């Protein structure tokens, strides 16, 4: 995550670990998770198009910078 610098990706600030847990300190972003918005109700077409465009932009960015992604 530290390799990806894109406006549509939350920045990883720090990684900390104990013997049993790993903690990721990430940029604070308002608005909640996209999944929660989609699961709650159907998005209007213009908003869905905006989110989809952001998603394909970041996937393209990752692929062009040899960065693997999970979701």
Automatic annotation (TrEMBL):
GO terms for biological process: signal transduction. The keyword ATP-binding applies. PROSITE patterns: PROTEIN_KINASE_DOM. The keyword Nucleotide-binding applies. Keywords: ATP-binding, Kinase, Nucleotide-binding, Serine/threonine-protein kinase, Transferase. Residues 1-71 form the Protein kinase domain. One of its GO terms (molecular function) is protein serine/threonine kinase activity. Signal peptide: none annotated. SUPFAM superfamilies: Protein kinase-like (PK-like). InterPro entries: Kinase-like_dom_sf (IPR011009), Prot_kinase_dom (IPR000719). This is Calcium/calmodulin-dependent/calcium-dependent protein kinase. It comes from Cynara cardunculus var. scolymus (Globe artichoke). The lineage of its organism: Eukaryota, Viridiplantae, Streptophyta, Embryophyta, Tracheophyta.
């Amino acid at each position: 995550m530290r390799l990806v610098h894109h406006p549509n990706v939350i920045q990883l600030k720090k990684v900390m670990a104990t013997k049993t847990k790993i903690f990721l300190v990430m940029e604070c972003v308002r608005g909640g998770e996209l999944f929660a918005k989609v699961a709650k109700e159907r998005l209007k077409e213009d908003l869905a198009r905006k989110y989809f465009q952001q998603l394909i932009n970041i996937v393209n960015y990752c692929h062009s910078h040899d960065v693997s992604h999970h979701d």
